[in-house]
Amino acid sequence: MSAPLQNDTFLRACLRQPTDHTPVWLMRQAGRYLPEYRATRATAGSFMGLATNKDFATEVTLQPLERYPLDAAILFSDILTVPDAMGLGLSFAQGEGPRFAHPLRDEAAVMALQVPDLDKLRYVFDAVTSIRRALNGRVPLIGFSGSPWTLACYMVEGAGSDDYRLVKSMLYGRPDLMHRILDINAQAVAAYLNAQIDAGAQAVMVFDSWGGVLADGAFQAFSLAYTERVVRALKREADGRRVPVIVFTKGGGLWLEQIAGIGADVVGVDWTVNLGRARAAVGDRVALQGNLDPNVLFAPPEAVAHEAVALLDSFGPPQRPDGTWDGHVFNLGHGISQYTPPEHVAALLEAVHAHSRRQRQPMSHGG
Amino acid sequence: MSAPLQNDTFLRACLRQPTDHTPVWLMRQAGRYLPEYRATRATAGSFMGLATNKDFATEVTLQPLERYPLDAAILFSDILTVPDAMGLGLSFAQGEGPRFAHPLRDEAAVMALQVPDLDKLRYVFDAVTSIRRALNGRVPLIGFSGSPWTLACYMVEGAGSDDYRLVKSMLYGRPDLMHRILDINAQAVAAYLNAQIDAGAQAVMVFDSWGGVLADGAFQAFSLAYTERVVRALKREADGRRVPVIVFTKGGGLWLEQIAGIGADVVGVDWTVNLGRARAAVGDRVALQGNLDPNVLFAPPEAVAHEAVALLDSFGPPQRPDGTWDGHVFNLGHGISQYTPPEHVAALLEAVHAHSRRQRQPMSHGG
Questions:
Q1: Is A49 left (phi over 0), alpha (psi -120 to 50) or beta?
Q2: pTM > 0.90: yes or no
Q3: Rounded to the nearest 10 degrees, how much is the dihedral formed by the CA atoms of B32, B38, B41, B47?
Q4: Three-state SS annotation for chain A
């Protein structure tokens, strides 16, 4: 039995339905820029200590909602939970980012790879249910996963990379092995997201964080095709309500029209994309999510507000002259930086809500 | 008195004139993947030891030409010579990339910045003259510089960056200071490239390596506008021959049409760009340079050749049905990796030359 949703602006914008303001949430909104997050993490002892404990995960997921009038919550977790459940041995070394103890470096390792038992990811689904209960209908909860390609990057490289040499060597040299990994990842990600939806996620997002490192052609074959398989396999309704699917390819602006064609409701874009032009290209097919450069948040609050207004004006009033609506979910074009001053986030949200309400007044829209 | 040019294929392609094959050179072709380069560098003691000595610079510039049938040479130097001459104190720590001892972090430092005395860059112009003499007309010599924005990134950050937090904080928080740096950089880069042309450079390239990290809007105002000022200020003829100007913005594919409008002869593109679509968009205004993913070179030689052919086919035969020519200079979409097997480069060049000749045979073009 779920509490009724009090603020469905985010879900409505995802589905290109009328809204009285532009909804806003921020990638990595529960994170290190918040002192209360750092305190909880210190108690938990580690990142995975936070993510694998449903009480901690619930606590940090709700922290930014206590501070800011955000229109959505996002599950506190990591995109690498799935390969960890496959037995690759995830760890987060201090100040170094994620690392796998058993990366996929040879044919034997690839052939041994299997779709994981979802029971190993029970802690994620428990967190979803716990957060959903704690939210009590305040705003919708977004679940998420890495895309098959982005997971494969980490699984082969074993860690972050600045040249993707190992994973691309496999892609160009042994495409058969790469396709095998991606096939398994696509099955695993679809099952993982469907289980999050069963546990209470009201929207889901696929982070193709590293799709943009691929060459044209390779992107379509090794990233987009597998993200599409995930999207097409997802449950799209829960509690009698549509569950929107968001696909975000960082650096994918050149492929926007192709990404808009794989069945997602929303396409996330980074800050290199002109939102007005993107809307003209795909706004009648998908809603758009984005796309403020997170570095704008280092500027003084007035400058932050100025950039937010410029971005809303670039999209324009979401209602079209013919009365139909396009959808815009305001967000950053990437995760918020740990160095962000929290009060600048307040200025951003205030500007987005106020200006987007003004845009909806017929006499002054766009002004 | 210069020796006559024996292979002008590169210059002709830059200017969209007929060629009997697609010319090819590789960014960073004189570099660490070549054992002979590593040997010379060991003798010189350091990167700057190589770059500041005209004999060493000449030796390493010519090394890849001894191995491969490249259609152009590029000056061996670094994009950061200009800010070094401004007094920022460039050094290359072992395995760490470039670093400035005196980055621009406050208003006083920005106000003290000046266009450098070109005499401090004499070693670069001497190297150009020496290389030109050593080439003896074999292939044309390309000179280069970083773009005003890319130089500013290093000058403010003090080193490479993965979030560009400092330079973007200045851009959004103190745009007046950022514009001052860019104004000085544009003057310095134009004078620097003109002096390279005077010394013998037969084409020049502006590397906007970090233009693609900017948001739409910010890119046009803080990168493209200043690159345009450089391009418009360049000498375009030497020895009675046109000196082509190449502009390469890594990650700039979304702004291709705008970049094509700033007066350059050639626009470089990275591997995310579809070459056929790029040609359709701007091929009648500029030649295109690019755009193989350097990671392709880790695959076996047959796979390397396959990808090169696919890329040439994506551009298509450069002569159009109406008899006019579009220009394509084959290159990577970024510098060659130090881990590249040298014999794979040979396979690449062989494939580019052979297939592009086939494309020009009327009975079998595109096949």
A1: alpha
A2: yes
A3: 20
A4: CCCCCCCCHHHHHHCCCCCCCCCECCCCCCCCCCHHHHHHHHHHCCHHHHHCCHHHHHHHHHHHHHHCCCCCEECCCCCCHHHHHHHHCEEEECCCEEEECCCCCCHHHHHHCCCCCHHHHHHHHHHHHHHHHHHCCCCCEEEEEECHHHHHHHHHHCECCCCCHHHHHHHHHCHHHHHHHHHHHHHHHHHHHHHHHHHCCCEEEEEECCHHHCCCCHHHHHHHHHHHHHHHCCCCEECCEECCEEEEECCCHHHHHHHCCCCCCEEECCCCCCHHHHHHHHCCCCEEEEEECHHHHHCCHHHHHHHHHHHHHHHCCCECCCCCECCEEEEECCCCCCCCCHHHHHHHHHHHHHHHHHHCCCCCCCC
> In the block, which residue shows the tokens 């430092």?
B109
Give me the mean pLDDT over the B56-79 stretch. 97
To the query of whether residue A270 is one of the catalytic residues in this protein, the response is no
Listed by number, the residues of chain A in 64-123 with a beta carbon closer than 8 Å to a beta carbon of chain B are: none
Which residue out of B33, B37, B68, B154 is catalytically annotated?
Answer: B154
Residue for token digits 């390609």?
A: A149
Q: Catalytic annotation on A241? A: no
Q: How far apart are CA A323 and CA A282, in angstroms?
A: 17
Identify the closest residue of chain A to B304 by CA–CA distance.
A172
Amino acid at site B89? G
CB contact under 8 A, A172 and B254: no
Cβ of A272 within 8 Å of Cβ of B165? The answer is no
Enumerate domains of chain B plus CATH numbers.
9-359 (3.20.20.210)
Q: Which residues of B touch A216 (CB under 8 A)?
A: 271-275
Q: Is A281 an 8 Å CB contact of chain B? A: no
Task: Tell me which chain B residues have a C-beta less than 8 angstroms from the C-beta of A300.
Answer: 173
Cis omega (within 30 of 0) on the bond before A7?
Answer: no
CA of B172 to nearest chain A CA: how many angstroms apart? Answer: 6
**Shortest alpha-carbon distance between residue A49 and chain B (Å):** 27
| pLDDT tens-place string over residues B69-79 | 999 999 999 99
Residue-level pLDDT at B1: 53
The residue of chain A nearest to residue B299, with distances taken between CA atoms, is: A173
The ipTM (two decimal places) reads: 0.94
CB-based contact, B218 to chain A, within 8 Å: yes
Contact between B297 and B348 under an 8 Å Cβ cutoff? The reply is yes
Rounded distance between C-alpha atoms, residue A97 and residue B162, angstroms: 13
User: Mind listing the pLDDT tens digit for each residue in A312-343?
Assistant: 999 999 999 999 999 999 999 999 999 999 99
Using CA atoms, how far apart are residues A304 and A323, in angstroms rounded to an integer?
Answer: 31
The most distant pair of C-alpha atoms in chain B lies apart, rounded to whole Å, by 66
List, in sequence order, every residue forming a beta bridge with B133; answer none if it has no partner: none
Active-site annotation holds for A78? yes
Beta bridge mates, B98: B92
CB contact under 8 A, B298 and A169: yes
Nearest-Cα distance to chain B for A88, in Å, is 25
- Kindly give, in sequence order, each residue whose CB lies less than 8 Å from that of residue A20, ignoring residues fewer than 6 positions away: A9, A357, A360
Q: Which DSSP letter does residue B95 get?
A: T
CA distance to partner chain A, nearest, from residue B344 (Å): 12
